[in-house]
């Protein structure tokens, strides 16, 4: 049985840890500086608490990092600094250039880097979630999840390929959602929302309900969607494409990022924050 450290078990990370357990691995995590909510998720998924990051990494054959993108590089550097020499899977929503930099850092530290990108919701049922992987040992990383709810795709192209696919996919799905909410806010701010809804009913009858559903679905996630949009913008810029749309999408999500712990939060909560000059109530 292999031992895998999952860093850190948020909603997505905990589900990935549970998938690795289902595939036969012993899965550990580090409760140091983590919240009670994180502990409860990890306990529910049968992940064993090693206490500290150092203890979680020591003796693990693989480390899988699933954290907000702004913390991904620093977390990887901490793991390498602890002397980890095994398989490091960075499954975060970061630009391809970040994967290239971490691959170099892993090589310098004597570890093996696999680039990863998660597409879909937390992996609780088969067919819902895909883990894209690229790098020299991507197939080994994929084998950690054989027979579990998360599907794996091994890509050619080395580190950066999995991140690029994740960025391209999320550029549309999450960028589209940000645009739809901004359009609805624009109509409300200009006093023509009823007229827009009437026009939608004639030409795009699904958009009214879709915008309401998007608001409910993204309200608790906007805090992590905002930095992901920044990563996507940097990915566009990296190949010479305009990055302004996703910079604006980052601002859209940042304006209602405070709804993370609101339950429930709906369209009005989101639009009020989008229309506030400073992004607050």
Walk me through this protein's architecture.
With 281 residues, this protein is α/β, with parallel strands linked by helices. It folds into two domains: 3-157, NAD(P)-binding Rossmann-like Domain (Rossmann fold, 3-Layer(aba) Sandwich); 165-275, N-(1-d-carboxylethyl)-l-norvaline Dehydrogenase, domain 2 (Orthogonal Bundle). 52% of the residues lie in helices and 13% in strands. It has twelve helices and eight strands. The chain has helices spanning 11-22, 36-44, 53-57, 72-81, 96-109, 138-143, 161-189, 193-203, 207-218, 222-238, 244-255, 267-275, and strands spanning 3-7, 26-29, 48-49, 62-65, 87-90, 112-119, 130-134, 151-155. The longest helix has 29 residues, at 161-189. It is globular, with a radius of gyration of 20 Å.
Helix-strand blueprint:
Blueprint: E1 3-7, H1 11-22, E2 26-29, H2 36-44, E3 48-49, H3 53-57, E4 62-65, H4 72-81, E5 87-90, H5 96-109, E6 112-119, E7 130-134, H6 138-143, E8 151-155, H7 161-189, H8 193-203, H9 207-218, H10 222-238, H11 244-255, H12 267-275
Helix pairs in contact: 4-5, 7-9, 7-10, 7-11, 7-12, 10-11
């Amino acid at each position: 049985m292999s031992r895998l450290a999952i860093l850190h078990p948020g909603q997505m990370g905990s589900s990935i840890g549970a998938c690795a357990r289902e595939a036969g691995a012993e899965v550990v995590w580090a409760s140091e500086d983590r919240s009670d909510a994180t502990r409860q998720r990890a306990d529910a998924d049968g992940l064993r608490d090693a206490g500290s990051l150092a203890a979680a990494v020591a003796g693990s054959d693989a480390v899988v990092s699933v954290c907000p993108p702004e913390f991904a590089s620093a977390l990887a550097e901490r793991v390498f600094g602890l002397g980890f020499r095994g398989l490091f899977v960075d499954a975060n929503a970061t630009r391809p250039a970040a994967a290239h930099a971490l691959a170099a850092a892993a090589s310098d530290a004597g570890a093996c880097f696999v680039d990863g990108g998660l597409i879909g919701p937390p992996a609780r049922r088969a067919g819902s979630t895909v883990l894209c992987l690229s790098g020299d040992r991507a197939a080994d990383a994929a084998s950690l999840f054989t027979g579990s709810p998360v599907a794996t795709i091994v890509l050619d192209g080395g580190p950066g390929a999995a991140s690029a696919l994740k960025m391209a996919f999320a550029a549309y799905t999450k960028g589209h959602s940000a645009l739809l909410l901004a359009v609805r806010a624009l109509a409300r701010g200009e006093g023509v929302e009823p007229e827009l809804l009437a026009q939608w009913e004639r030409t795009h009858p699904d958009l009214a309900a879709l915008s309401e559903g998007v608001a409910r679905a993204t309200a608790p996630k906007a805090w992590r969607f905002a930095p992901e949009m920044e990563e996507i913008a940097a990915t566009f810029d990296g190949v010479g494409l305009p990055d302004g749309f996703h910079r604006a999408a980052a601002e859209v999500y940042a304006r209602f990022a405070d709804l993370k712990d609101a339950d429930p939060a709906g369209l009005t909560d989101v639009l009020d924050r989008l229309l506030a000059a400073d992004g607050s109530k």
